[in-house]
Specification:
GO terms for molecular function: mRNA binding; translation initiation factor activity. Pfam families: MA3. Belongs to the eukaryotic initiation factor 4G family. With about 400 residues, the protein is mainly α. It has two domains: about 190 residues, Serine Threonine Protein Phosphatase 5, Tetratricopeptide repeat (Alpha Horseshoe); about 150 residues, Serine Threonine Protein Phosphatase 5, Tetratricopeptide repeat, CATH 1.25.40.180. The protein contains 20 helices and two strands. The chain has a two-stranded antiparallel sheet. A hairpin with a 2-residue loop joins strand 1 and strand 2. Helix 4 crosses helix 6 and helix 15 crosses helix 17. The longest helix is centred in the N-terminal third of the chain and has 18 residues. The radius of gyration is 25 Å and the shape is elongated.
């Protein structure tokens, strides 16, 4: 609606979901996380220098001036006037406190959280984004510091403002699309505070889909290599995706709709029909990995909920339900080698997420080999360690365990 659509589609991405080639404002440094720049995704480029007037300004004077700036913008929406006001402020820093950039973002995000009026929230976010686009009067560091201030106390605010999560999402979504924030920064901040990560990111992603469209949102996650398991545990994924209407962004999560059929021992034909009825993406590597996760979780639950590790129940046997095994064989047996790596990587990720013992991985690998879900060549390719799965700190121990089971020298 209104200006928010303009912000999301005229910003970092085009309406069809492609990165916009628009360069930064004159004199601006490289944009954070922008493909093709020298700055890796999720890291901040050094912001360009800004005029830093009146560095001895007292805190109460600064806050009063910022309040006037925001109030006047809400009335007249005059960006030129707002830019002129910032020229008189210590944007970078001041004696004894934060600069006006941080204080302004803190004020704006706080007002967005508190406001019951959608047009007010949109206008406030638009002000922040425009101050970034024009001469970078606001930069990424300001937005990070200002958002951190408000996120730290978000659960306290919810007591008085029940819609606080949804409201702050209306700021975080555009900030992410404009590369003022990164998803990984947001995840790390949430982990440091008592914030419901699934609820916050679910609301944020939902708003990104609403204001920018599924194409933009999907492409954003693809560019930034952001996976659903970064913030949603296996249990409850389908409910979270349904609650926040994120199906267009994470279609593979629909694999969870098959879990009941696995539990009921449905034959392969019934599973294939369910996939067709639900329009599940048969050829999607993401879907195959999600299907492996669902099958493993169902087997663990059926075995009594054990998650492995010292003093905990052993890994389930068989490690995959019969239905999941048959369906994965149907999807993967004739797939090319790169596609057969998907279930192997998912098995390793599941072990990492659930603290299963190291020997759980070779156990499931053998199950997949015996049932022709993957080939020996696929396991050998996995062992070469050419993928992101090697970032797992347990990978060397897992590889040793697989070597023993496979009887490799």
């Amino acid at each position: 609606p209104g200006g928010m659509v303009r912000m999301a589609t005229v910003g970092g991405y085009t309406p069809d979901g492609q990165p916009r080639s628009r360069g930064p404002s004159p004199g601006a440094g490289p944009r954070m996380g922008r493909p093709g720049t020298a700055t890796p995704p999720g890291e901040m480029a050094p912001p360009p220098p800004r005029p830093n007037a009146n560095t001895d300004m007292a805190e109460d004077v600064l806050k009063r001036k910022l309040k006037v700036l925001v109030d006047e913008f809400l009335v007249n929406k005059n960006l030129t006037e707002a830019l002129q006001c910032t020229e008189e402020l210590p944007m970078e820093s001041r004696a004894g406190g934060s600069g006006a950039g941080v204080e302004l973002v803190t004020l704006v995000v706080g007002l967005v959280i508190d406001s019951a009026k959608a047009d007010v929230r949109r206008t406030l976010v638009q002000l922040t984004v425009d101050l970034f686009r024009h001469q970078q009067r606001i930069n990424q560091r300001d937005v990070q510091a200002g958002c951190r201030e408000q996120l730290e106390f978000l659960n306290d605010v919810v007591i008085d403002v029940p819609n606080a999560y949804r409201n702050v999402a209306e700021a975080l979504g555009p900030f992410l699309l404009e590369n003022l924030l990164s998803l990984y920064w947001l995840l790390n901040v949430c982990k440091g505070f008592e914030v419901d990560i699934s609820k916050l990111l679910g609301s944020t992603l939902q708003f990104m889909v609403e204001c920018a469209g599924p194409g933009v949102a999907c492409n954003y996650f693809k560019i930034h290599k952001f996976a659903v398991d970064s913030f949603m545990p296996v249990k409850g994924r389908l409910e979270t995706v349904d609650r926040y209407q994120l199906g267009p962004v994470f279609p593979a999560v629909k694999a969870h709709g098959l879990q009941t059929l696995f539990r009921e021992g449905a034959p392969l034909g019934a599973l294939q029909q369910a996939m067709d009825d639900q329009q599940l993406p048969r050829q999607s590597i993401d879907f195959v990995q999600e299907l492996v996760m669902v099958g493993l979780q169902e087997a663990v639950d059926a075995a009594g909920g054990g998650v492995g590790g010292e003093g905990q129940p052993p890994a389930p046997s068989p490690p995959l339900p019969a239905g999941a095994t048959a369906l994965l064989n149907d999807l993967c047996a004739k797939a090319p080698l790169p596609a057969q790596l998907a279930p192997l990587i998912a098995i390793q990720a599941f072990r990492s997420n659930t603290n299963m013992p190291i020997d759980f991985v070779p156990q499931v690998f053998v199950h997949c080999l015996d049932n022709k879900i993957v080939s020996v060549a696929a396991v050998q390719e996995w062992a070469q360690g050419r993928g992101l799965h090697t970032n797992d700190p347990s990978f060397p121990q897992i590889l040793d365990a697989v070597r023993v089971v496979m009887r490799w020298k």
